[in-house]
What we know:
Elements: H1 20-28, H2 30-38, E1 46-47, H3 48-66, H4 75-89, E2 94-95, H5 103-121, E3 128-141, E4 145-159, E5 162-169, H6 177-182, H7 185-196, E6 202-209, E7 214-218, H8 222-240
Parallel strand pairs: 1-2, 5-6
Antiparallel strand pairs: 3-4, 4-5, 6-7
The chain binds iron/sulfur cluster.
The site of iron/sulfur cluster has 12 residues, from helix 2.
Amino acid sequence: xxxxxxxxVSPSRHMEPYSHSRLSIYEQCPHRYRLRYIDGIxxxxxxxxAFTGSxxxxxxxxxxxxxxxxxxxxxxxxxxxxRGLWDELFRDSxxxxxxxxxxxxxxxxxxxxxxxxxxxxxxxxxxxxxxxEHELRFSIFGTREHDMIGYVDRITCLGDGVYEIHxxxxxxxxxxxxxxxxxxxLALYEIGLRRSLPxxxxxxxxxxxxxxxxxxxxxxxxxxxxxxxxxTSALIESIEGCNRFPRRxxxxxxxxxxxxxx
Length: 262
Ligand code: SF4
């Protein structure tokens, strides 16, 4: 198994590697990008949706580190672990943007998602887990080289050079097949995985949409990965050439950690 690595939740600085989420923040609102990645303004505020997602990810990481190789874990233990994490990490700066919603409601949703996932995948013998919250560092190439970083929720090996890249989603939105084919995050991870491991022959991209108890899959051709690399490099080069970072006001401002100062 690869070495474990925890997500770095500190704000990235201008010269730090690019990630899918960093690029997404620029696409959503250049001003938010500037505050976070150039000015380095660290905010403790976090939406309840992001907090719920981080706790569910922590519980699933614990589940896969405790199962396999003849070991098992009861669903009650999984829920108790999640509730322990919730209580330990919850703080006043977690905000609820949706009207008439409560933190308790989100905690119950987290429990329901984990139990549905447990029922669907027990006894967790779908391939060999080779990485959990695995940090991938790699380069992509455009007119110059760009350092990339990604944290893969889970990597499994099915044998004979066949790998799966798994990602857990806790949001309500279910993507269409066309959305999956355009998804940048896991395809970038595939580029990183292929550049990290010499034996990779085939990669399956797997999204677990936990709120819907759905598993969605896709693959990328070599040509599609080349186009993605070229488009991502061009985006990075346009960010690095940017000297205006305009505000992009919209409905998502309610979920922005900088909304109180913007
Ligand atoms: S509150 Fe809205 S406009 Fe301001 S930084 Fe956040 S996303 Fe951008």
